[in-house]
Design a protein that fits this description.
It holds the Pfam family Oxidored_FMN. InterPro entries: Aldolase_TIM, OxRdtase_FMN_N, Oye-like. This is Xenobiotic reductase. There is one protein chain. This protein is α/β, with parallel strands linked by helices. The chain has one domain. The chain is built from three helices and three strands; from the N terminus they run αβαβαβ. β1, α2 and β2 form a beta-alpha-beta unit.
């Protein structure tokens, strides 16, 4: 249910976000993501696909903003995530 393909891997975050938005409303909810959070072997083999899907899912749920821990580099995911989300994105350097 929570592993395997991207849809299943983002299911838990989506369920938690739905519950929080249901109580507080999307305009009062932000989500912190760490595309470069690869310590302890927690990285993803296709971070671009995973995090752009998460951004689209958060947009669909009406989340107010995303906060990213992302580095400025040639392989940065910031633009792809910003485009997929379509709302305010706060980025800090990893």
């Amino acid at each position: 249910q929570y592993g395997g393909d991207i849809q299943n891997r983002v299911r838990f975050l989506n369920e938690i976000t739905d519950a929080v938005v249901g109580v507080w409303g999307g305009d009062r909810v932000g989500v912190h993501l760490a595309p470069r959070g690869d310590s302890h072997d927690m990285g993803d083999s296709d971070a671009r696909a995973l995090f752009t899907q998460v951004a689209r899912d958060m947009r669909a749920r009406g989340v107010a903003f995303l906060c990213l821990r992302e580095r400025v580099a040639e392989d940065s995911l910031l633009d792809a995530i910003r485009d997929a989300f379509g709302g305010p994105v706060i980025a800090t350097r990893a």
